[in-house]
Amino acid sequence: MTDWEEVLERAAAWSEAGLGVAVATVASTWGSAPRPAGSHLAVNDRGEFVGSVSGGCIEAAVVGEALSAMRDGKARRLRYGVSDERAWELGLACGGTVEVHLEPGARRELYAELRRDLEARRPVVMATNLETGAARLVHPFEAAGTDPLAEAARDAAARDQTGTVPTADGEVLLRAYNPPVRVFVVGAVHVAQPLSQMVKLAGHDVLVVDPRRSFATGDRFPGVALSQEYPDEAFERVGLDRRSAVVALTHDPKIDEPALAAALRSEAFYLGALGSRKTQAARRERLARQGFSPSQLDRIHGPVGLPIGAVTPGEIATAILAEMVACLRPAKRKDG
Amino acid sequence: MTDPDVYQGALLDLARQATGAGRLEAPDGSATLDNPLCGDRATFEVRVRAGRIEALAHRVRGCVLCQATASLLGREALGAGAAEVSGSRRAAAELLGEGRPPGPDAFPGLSSFAPVQAVPSRHRCVLLPFDALSAALAAAGK
What we know:
Chain A is an alpha/beta fold. Chain A is 35% helix and 24% strand. Chain A contains eleven helices and 15 strands. Chain B has four helices and three strands, in the order H-E-E-E-H-H-H. The radius of gyration of chain B is 14 Å and the shape is globular.
């Protein structure tokens, strides 16, 4: 469960139990800030809270404001930073500035709908007008062109970043909620062992797929989801989407190539394939004969992983995971 | 991959023809076998009348050798009974193991698998569809 899920579920549970609730969301940050825009903190009328909007520096102040908001029923825009004398008093010593949107209530219905969307792996953006407090959900990749927020919501979801946009009706906070990244590791081989654990540590879902039953065993992959299907069968069952990554590691064309072909037909954000340059060239030719164009085939990262001179399985897994993250977050890359 | 001779024309053609690939409406028996080390997987479905194969269909995920064998069975095993299937399986194993040419009772075309004799690690790929067909027949007899 991601941190925001825990926060919003707790807020809904408090609200259902009859407690007063307020939810704070980091709307924007300047300079260094301990928690990124989009971070949530939920507070109940007993002063209990879950989540965070900073590294502990301003939580007490936000909790105090939250109790006031529950009493007067009004949303608030709060700003904490060095320009504010209270920044030192509040201990935001990192030198950053944080703007927080705080509103009373748990938005139970909206968040229930949002959870249903995410269960269906549908990216969704919560749009909150910071001046009127009006909130609605935007489905960024389905929203009609007439929706004035469609493009900004698409950008927020694609970058997986929260931000504010000016509109005719006032400033709007766009908080993107994306389904979890799902990494499909094709080939229950040696490199897949550290890679599957590292993907989980990075906070993503992982499925190791290998029709060779003697490779895809629970003994070799403790605590990891395994499938003994052919990868294209597994993908058809589970579904590849824009939050999916596929890494082909078997070296066996009868397993790797159906996986890559299926991934090329999907919106998967990362495709990687193990193998030397010579192997890559031969595979590229075979896939081209299946009708894939050069620009489609350029989506395949191979030899797989960033060129860091990786030697051991753990190092190779590091190179692969780093390359995958770079593709997931192009907007965050310094050189991108 | 291992030996280019293994992928000579006759076997590639056989694999490409994929005779018998598909499904049966109401099979009397079916079986799926796989090789847990290489991932080859063969499913056979049969309809049986008076102990003989009246119809068969197969679905193979695997290498060219596995596909070629399934295609050969799709072409030759119609009308055969369990004894003929296991007889031809024995002939295939002897061809691969000792290079002994298949006898007149074996399914025609088996000799095109002779080059695989040189690659022991791939013998199982050839024999797996035979075993899946035999298992489907056994299931039909129950």
